[in-house]
Amino acid sequence: MALPTMVSTAQLHTLLEQDDLVLLDSRFYLNDLEKGRKVYQQGHIPGALFVDLHHQLAGTETAFTGRHPLPEPDALAQTLASLGINNNSQVVVYDDMGGAMAARAWWMLVQQGIEVYVLNGGFGAWQKQGLPIEMGVNQPAPTEFRIKVSYPWLVTEEDVVANFEADRFQLLDARAEDRFNGMNETMDPVAGHIPGAINRPFMNNLNAEGLMKSPERLQTEWGALLQHIEKPIVYYCGSGVTACHNVLAMNYAGLEAKHVYVGSWSQWAKRMQRMMQEHSI
């Protein structure tokens, strides 16, 4: 069954008056955790609610997790209820990075059976079309209904370790090519990539205007990359965020993709650092 993926600015504009629409602004900046909320208050698509990727769509980072572990199922269920999301909601998520941040929310919600889409081109495309923008903070209409949250598409660190012997899946890294190759690593304590992984930077899913490439173009590009791989693909990145953009792009192209190693390189680098420290003793 095909997953919902993208809507255009024109499509969203026609949806704004729907009672079951929940519009989420998921703008997020790793170097300034408060900026997303600030830019939301300065201007957003009418009716949008701000959702905080770092605090609402992620759990607490520890010495043994990646930067953005998934929240506990009960915590996400509470967040969804506080935003007014139930099984009948139609959710649209946007950001200002070509869907790189919005895709995390999409991936988390779509596996709950929620009808959720990413706005193609995000806030920038909406502004470019000269469509309405409002300021301030919208208040959600919470629901008492609780979605039973689970993460069937989650791949864990233990799964990745076991795969070195089991060889059940192929890892695919969404980070930029230089970081994949161990260069210009400024975020994690160890540079490089997980052994055996291949690379497809998520930015390659976008055209020059910051829109998702056409399904046909994506199908051709992804098909060329994966043509000799017969195993299922598990997607990862730096912290389990932009990997979701590759999953989104694959589904937009009509190709099957679901599983994400959420700990990603930020968790794996901590593992490598611990191993190096143990061997140096």
Q: How many H/I helical runs?
A: 10
CATH architecture of the largest domain: 3-Layer(aba) Sandwich
Mean of all residue-level pLDDT scores: 96
Order of helices and strands: EHEHEHEHEHEHEHEHEHEH
Q: How would you characterize this protein structure?
A:
The protein is α/β, with parallel strands linked by helices and 281 residues long. It folds into 2 domains: 6-128, Rhodanese-like domain (Oxidized Rhodanese, domain 1), CATH 3.40.250; 154-280, Rhodanese-like domain (Oxidized Rhodanese, domain 1, 3-Layer(aba) Sandwich). It is built from 10 helices and 10 strands. It has helices at residues 9-15, 35-42, 73-82, 102-110, 122-128, 157-166, 177-180, 215-226, 243-252, 264-280; strands at residues 6-7, 21-25, 49-50, 90-94, 115-119, 154-155, 170-173, 198-199, 233-236, 260-261. It has a 5-stranded parallel β-sheet with strand order 1-5-4-2-3. Strands 8-7-9 form a 3-stranded parallel β-sheet, covered by helices on one side. The mean pLDDT is 96. Keywords: Pyruvate, Repeat, Transferase. This is Thiosulfate/3-mercaptopyruvate sulfurtransferase. GO terms for molecular function: thiosulfate-cyanide sulfurtransferase activity.
Topology:
Elements: E1 6-7, H1 9-15, E2 21-25, H2 35-42, E3 49-50, H3 73-82, E4 90-94, H4 102-110, E5 115-119, H5 122-128, E6 154-155, H6 157-166, E7 170-173, H7 177-180, E8 198-199, H8 215-226, E9 233-236, H9 243-252, E10 260-261, H10 264-280
Parallel strand pairs: 1-5, 2-3, 2-4, 4-5, 6-10, 7-8, 7-9
Helix pairs in contact: 4-9
InterPro entries: Rhodanese-like_dom (IPR001763), Rhodanese-like_dom_sf (IPR036873), Thiosulphate_STrfase_CS (IPR001307), TST/MPST-like (IPR045078)
GO molecular function: thiosulfate-cyanide sulfurtransferase activity
Protein name: Thiosulfate/3-mercaptopyruvate sulfurtransferase
